[in-house]
Amino acid sequence: MNPFTVRLNLHGDLDFFLRAEARGRSIERSLGEKTSVKDVIESCGVPHPEVDLILANGQPVDLHYAITSDADIELYPVGAGIPKFKEQRLQATIVSGFVADGHLGKLARDLRLLGFDVAYDSRAEDRQLLRVMERENRALLTRDRRLLMHAVVKSGYCPRSQNADEQAVEVIRRFDLLRSLAPFSRCLRCNAPLRKVSKAEVLERLEPLTKIYYEQFRCCTGCGQIYWAGSHFSKLQKRLEKIRANCG
Ligand SMILES: [Zn+2]
After folding, report:
1. How far is the CA of 192 from the centre of ligand 1 (A)?
2. 190 alpha carbon to ligand 1 midpoint, in Å?
3. Fewer CB within 10 Å, N side or C side of the chain?
4. How far is the CA of 180 from the centre of ligand 1 (A)?
5. Ligand 1: centre distance to CA 126 (Å)
6. What's the 79 CA to ligand 1 centre distance in angstroms?
7. How far is the CA of 29 from the centre of ligand 1 (A)?
8. Is 134 in contact with 119 (CB distance < 8 Å)?
9. How far is the CA of 131 from the centre of ligand 1 (A)?
C-alpha cells in the first residue's frame, strides 16, 4: 500500500487535547497501512468518547471507519452546534449515571448534591472503574485520557477545568442535565437516595441543639446518615446557585 496523508480538523473545544503549539491548526498524519479513524484520532491525543461527529471527506462515518487513502477528517465534540447529520452522532447525551475516578472526589460530591447518581471510590483502580461503568451502564468521568481511550468506554467525559464547581457545570452541559437537577435528594457520602423522615423517627439520633432548632429531616436509604438544613446548608445552597447560574 502506498503511503497516504490524513488531515484532521478539530472543532469546538477538542483542541484542548492537543499540545499548546498544535492548537488552532490542522493536523497531518502520514500512514502506510489501513487504519481505523478511532486509532488516528486517539494517536493525536483525543479520546473517542469526546468525538460526537466524524466527517471523512464530507461524509459522516463511525469510529471503526477504515482509512486507506488520502482523507480530510473533521471532528466535532458534543454540542458543537452543527445542525446537519443529527442521525450520525456518536455520543449519547442521556445517561443513567456516572462513575468518577479517584481524583474527582469533589466533582462526585457536587454532582450528588445536585441529585445525580455518581459511583465513586477514592481507591478504585482503573479496571474497577471500567467494570462499574460497564456493569451499571454509567458514563466515565476522568481526566485520564488514556483511560477514556479504553475500547470498552462507550460514554465518558474529561473535565477541562481543574475546579470542581466548573467541572460540574461542564458535566451538566455535556450531558444536558439542567432540567434533571434534584438538589438534596441524594446522600453525599454513599450516593443512595434520601427519603423524608419525621422528626420523631430520628429524634433519638439528633444532637441536643439540632433537636431544638430543626424540624425537617431526610435520611439516607443506604447508610442512614441524617440530613437537615444546618449550618453547612446555606454554604451548599450558595454553591448550588452558582453552579445553576453558570449552566444557564
Ligand atoms: Zn448514605
Report:
1. 5
2. 4
3. C
4. 21
5. 24
6. 34
7. 50
8. no
9. 22
Ordered alpha helix ranges (H), 16-156: 37-43, 105-113, 126-135, 145-148
Separation of CA 193 and ligand 1 centre (Å): 8
pLDDT tens, residue by residue, 133-166? 999 999 999 999 999 999 999 999 999 999 999 9
**Spacing, Cα 115 to ligand 1 middle (Å):** 13
Helix (H) or strand (E) holding 234: helix 231-247
Q: Please identify which residue in the block is written with the cell numbers 439528633.
A: 206
As given in the structure block, the three cell numbers for residue 116 are 445525580
pLDDT in tens, 29-49: 999 999 999 999 999 999 999
**Which of 81-95, 197-211, 230-244 shows the highest mean pLDDT?**
197-211
Q: Which three cell numbers stand for residue 121?
A: 471510590
Distance CA 194, CA 175 (A): 23
User: Quick one: 114 exposed, middle or buried, by C-beta within 10 A (0-12, 13-18, 19+)?
Assistant: buried
Taken as a whole, the chain contains a residue count of: 248
| Cα dist from 82 to 16, 55, 172, 195, whole Å | 19, 12, 20, 42
